[in-house]
Amino acid sequence: MNKTVICPGSFDPVTLGHLDIITRASGMFDKVIVAVLVNSGKTPTFTTEERIQLLNDAVSGLPNVEIVSFKGLLAEYCKQSGIDTIVKGLRAVSDFEYEFQMAIANKKLNPNLETIFLTADSDSTFLSSSMVREIGSMGGDISNFVPACVHDRIVSKLRK
Ligand code: ADP
């Protein structure tokens, strides 16, 4: 069976935690669609185009990964695209309640949709895009938090 899964998120910007989940998913499934959410509640720091470009560069070594953007409901996007599996990363108990609610809500909206959780790597359980933005904007070293190939671009945007 040819299995395509989707990894949704804001990716504002991509971190090594995201890349770890995407890389592991790409080894488990035939194709991984990384879906950048366009209409999250708050205005992102990086534009949709920037977030897509950074992700594209970060996954350039993974031939079965494709980056797309989507608006509206993930469950609807999956239905329209014929995708029935979401892959998400779980960092800590603090992620659990929200992710659990989202998984159930998505299944109510689209009963064919399953959500699979991969546990975060021990090195990135503390890592989030908001932490990268905060540290980077104050001039801190984020080289251990973001993919090396996109580090300089992330730093220059955050220091503006
Ligand atoms: P963030 O909380 O960093 O803004 P996103 O909304 O972009 O995260 O997250 C997209 C997906 O990546 C979610 O499934 C989230 O749980 C996962 N993820 C985010 N950061 C990490 C990390 N450090 N380790 C593992 N998974 C992560």
Commentary on this structure:
The chain is α/β, with parallel strands linked by helices and 160 residues long. Helices cover 43% and strands 19% of the residues. It contains 6 helices and 5 strands. The chain is globular and about 45 Å long. The model has no long low-confidence stretch (mean pLDDT 95). Adenosine-5'-diphosphate binds next to α1 and β4.
Can you give keywords for this protein?
5 strands; about 45% helix; binds adenosine-5'-diphosphate; three-stranded parallel β-sheet; about 160 residues; Rossmann fold; alpha/beta; globular; two-stranded parallel sheet
Topology diagram in text:
Elements lengths: L3 E6 L6 H13 L2 E7 L10 H11 L6 E6 L3 H8 L3 E6 L2 H17 L4 E6 L9 H9 L10 H11 L2
Bound molecules: adenosine-5'-diphosphate.
Overview in brief:
Helices cover 43% and strands 19% of the residues. With 160 residues, the protein is an alpha/beta fold.
Bound molecules: adenosine-5'-diphosphate
CATH level 3 topology: Rossmann fold
The global form is globular
Count of separate structural domains? 1
CATH superfamily: HUPs
Q: Could you give the distance between the termini?
A: 47 Å
Mean pLDDT: 95
What share of residues are in beta strands? 15-25%
Uncertain runs are none
- Could you estimate the helical fraction of the residues in percent? 40-55%
Number of helices: 6
Biggest sheet, in brief? Answer: 3 strands, parallel
The secondary-structure element order is EHEHEHEHEHH
Count of extended strands: 5
Radius of gyration: 15 Å
Instruction: Provide the CATH top-level class.
Output: Alpha Beta
Strand order within the widest beta sheet: 1-2-3
What structural class do helix, strand and pairing data support? alpha/beta
